[in-house]
Amino acid sequence: MLERCRELGFALAGVARVGPMRHADEMREWLAQGKHGSMAYLAEHARLKADASQMLEGARCAIMVADLYATRNEPTDPVPNGHGRIARYARGGDYHKAIKKRLHRLCDEMAERFSECQTRAFVDTAPVHERELALAAGLGWVGKHTLMIHPKVGSWMLLGGVLTTLDLEVNEHEEPDHCGTCTRCIDACPTDAITPYSVDASRCISYLTIERREEIAVDLQRGIGEWVFGCDICQEVCPHNSPRDGDVGQRNVAYEPGRASFDLVDVLGWDEEARRAAFAGTALKRAKLGMMKRNAVIAAGNAVSRMGRGEPTSRVLLDALVRVRASESEEREIRSLADRTLAGLLDSLADE
């Protein structure tokens, strides 16, 4: 099975025994502390997540796979002034489709080969604790930023898997934790969302820009910087993503990057049709129009603060914020945010 996974283009593959989640108590405590933010579905699906076998009657094993959407030898893309940054995983094709298509093919082949075999493919959206299964399957270790890290290829990976009733040979060697005393991801997080092996999602930039539908707290807005969809900071600073000689894997062609950023002025002027066109074929569509405009207002304010009033791009962004504030067709919450952002900028730039 693992050889077939590699033939299907997956960079990593392994098999884990399915059963009760080892870190269920930690998950329950994390939820009890409200660190899932407004992602109510995590609490609703906690029971299912605690034991993946509940997702498929008679499930014994999970075949876990990983795609690389970037490699550790790829430099960080420069982002022009006035642009909002996009997380690397969302710059290419939609990973849900790219991974599930091949997993469904694997399921079909398994059904043909083993008549009594039952399978269920999952990628991100099913209530399955993918990282714990990937850890048990030998795909790497879970770093202090809670992401899966492989000792050779790093952490630029996307996970998927297949639950099966087959009794397969499982991985017997879990990758040891190589984080050691390093705290770079913790130290670099602008919103202080990371503590060792735990992330407060309610403070995480990825959550704030992609999952949170409501207004973002003022004390977190500066930390968002110029990100408008997701965040890569904790991975960018990780030593296990630094360039190295030898085999570092290959990015799957499905994730060939399209763009690393969006022009903030463009986003502030989007209508729904423009948003759909910009997001076509990608995993970006989870962020709705109002969310993207909210993110763009915050990013524009942070960009102006960084560059100062004298930078030509700052004047363009300020003009765009003025237009948003004055627009009769814009949502009230976005106009209000633009108004507060402008007021704060004018106060901070008054002495220039």
Structure notes:
With 352 residues, the protein is of the alpha+beta class. Helices cover 39% and strands 12% of the residues. It has 15 helices and 11 strands. It has a 4-stranded antiparallel sheet, with helices on both faces. The protein has a 3-stranded mixed sheet with strand order 10-3-11. The protein has a two-stranded antiparallel sheet with strand order 5-6. A hairpin with a 2-residue loop joins β8 and β9. α13 packs antiparallel against α14, α13 (289-307) packs parallel to α15 and α14 runs antiparallel to α15 (332-349).
Largest sheet: 4 strands, antiparallel
Output mean pLDDT: 93
Rg computed from alpha carbons, rounded to a whole number of angstroms: 22 Å
Instruction: Provide the helix percentage.
Output: 25-40%
Helix-strand string: HEHHHEEHEHEEEHEEHHEHEHHHHH
Q: Distance N terminus to C terminus?
A: 64 Å
Helix/strand structural class = alpha+beta
Residue fraction in strands: 5-15%
Extended strand count: 11
Topology:
Layout: H1 2-7, E1 12-17, H2 24-32, H3 40-44, H4 46-49, E2 61-68, E3 83-86, H5 95-113, E4 119-122, H6 130-136, E5 141-142, E6 148-149, E7 157-164, H7 184-188, E8 194-195, E9 198-199, H8 205-211, H9 218-224, E10 227-229, H10 233-236, E11 261-263, H11 264-268, H12 272-279, H13 289-307, H14 312-326, H15 332-349
Parallel strand pairs: 3-10
Antiparallel strand pairs: 1-2, 2-7, 3-11, 4-7, 5-6, 8-9
Which properties best describe this structure?
352 residues, alpha+beta, 4-stranded antiparallel beta sheet, 3-stranded mixed beta sheet, 15 helices, 39% helix
